[in-house]
Write a structure and sequence with these properties.
With about 190 residues, the chain is an alpha/beta fold. It is about 25% helix and about 35% strand. The strands form 2 sheets. The protein has a 6-stranded mixed beta sheet with strand order 1-10-5-2-8-9. This is DUF2846 domain-containing protein.
Length: about 190
């Protein structure tokens, strides 16, 4: 009985607070915040407004290219080429988001933590017309934009083979999902 209570207590403590920012990322100065897409690009904000699982970070990729590490109450802005992309989030698992992006549009994706076995799992949930602009603004305004620093880029290089293994393990599972269960960012979701 004591062991169960201790596990529950530690789980609640772990997932309820202790928000930490990754040392792989640097906060963006207010004048450097990205607010619009570069000419001919699409801008995507990967936002994690929740403090749930705050001690655990997730990493975001476009295919196998490291975009950044998202901690609680942070966001990563990515200038993408228009067209089709497969984004990936890594935590205890890997999950995916298929996107078809239009140039000169801005998109929002919620990075959602959930309970895992050893640490948090994450999903990418697109704001594809089912989320109000007021809710998106609330998420955006409750987060700080961060960018990868040299430590983060070095970490990503050193972990590239491990990330490829996770991608190889989880992408086929995502591809086998029913079409309606696959996360997709629709072109018309851009603002």
């Amino acid at each position: 009985m004591f062991n169960r209570l201790m596990i529950v207590f530690l789980g609640v403590l772990f997932f309820s607070g202790c928000a930490t920012q990754s040392n792989h990322m640097t906060k963006v100065t207010p004048e450097s915040v990205i607010t619009k897409p570069e000419e001919g690009k699409a801008l995507i904000h990967f936002i994690r407004p929740s403090n749930y699982g705050g001690a655990v970070q997730s990493t975001i990729y476009n295919e196998s290219n490291y975009l950044g590490t998202v901690s609680a109450q942070t966001r990563v802005a990515y200038q993408a080429d228009p067209g089709k992309h497969m984004f990936m989030v890594i935590g205890e698992n890997a999950d995916f988001l298929e996107a078809n992006l239009l140039e000169n549009k801005t998109y929002y994706v919620l990075v959602s933590p959930r309970m895992g076995v050893w640490k948090a799992r994450f999903s990418l949930n697109p704001a594809s017309g089912d989320v109000s602009q007021q809710q998106i603004d609330s998420w955006y305004n409750s987060t700080t934009e961060v960018v990868p620093n040299e430590a983060g880029l070095d970490w990503a290089k050193s972990k590239a083979s491990e990330i490829e293994k996770l991608k190889s393990k989880y992408l086929p599972k995502w591809q086998q999902k029913a079409e309606g269960d696959k996360q997709r960012l629709k072109p018309e979701s851009g603002i």
